[in-house]
């Protein structure tokens, strides 16, 4: 454990941020999986929700913008190939 007060605080805030980031990533993976599972059906709400979650992850700083663009691109490729 750190002796410096500011470092103790950083450890706590980093743990909180890690928990938040883990939750966002987990939700993101779930939505992308449900979007790929819905390929072939006419319902595109799962795809829109997955895209929204990807964009929100970028806004929160969980994902890099290029990573998000890659994920969105690959998801659309799967959807277009399966339709």
Average predicted local confidence, pLDDT: 94
CATH topology call: Methane Monooxygenase Hydroxylase, Chain G, domain 1
Query: What top-tier CATH class fits best?
Result: Mainly Alpha
Number of domains: 1
CATH superfamily: Ribosomal protein S20
- The SS-based structural class is mainly alpha
Uncertain ranges: none
Detailed description of the structure:
The protein has helices at residues 5-37, 45-59, 65-82. With 83 residues, the protein is mainly alpha-helical. Helix 1 (5-37) packs antiparallel against helix 2 and helix 2 runs antiparallel to helix 3 (65-82). The radius of gyration is 17 Å and the shape is elongated.
What does this entry show, briefly?
This protein has helices at residues 5-37, 45-59, 65-82. With 83 residues, the protein is an all-alpha fold.
């Amino acid at each position: 454990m750190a002796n410096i007060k500011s470092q103790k605080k950083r450890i706590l805030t980093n743990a909180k941020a890690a928990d938040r980031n883990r939750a966002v990533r987990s939700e993101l993976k779930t939505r992308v999986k449900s979007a790929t599972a819905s390929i072939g059906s006419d319902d595109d709400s799962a795809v829109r929700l997955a895209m929204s979650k990807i964009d929100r992850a970028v806004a929160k700083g969980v994902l890099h913008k290029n990573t998000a663009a890659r994920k969105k691109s690959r998801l659309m490729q799967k959807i277009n190939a399966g339709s």
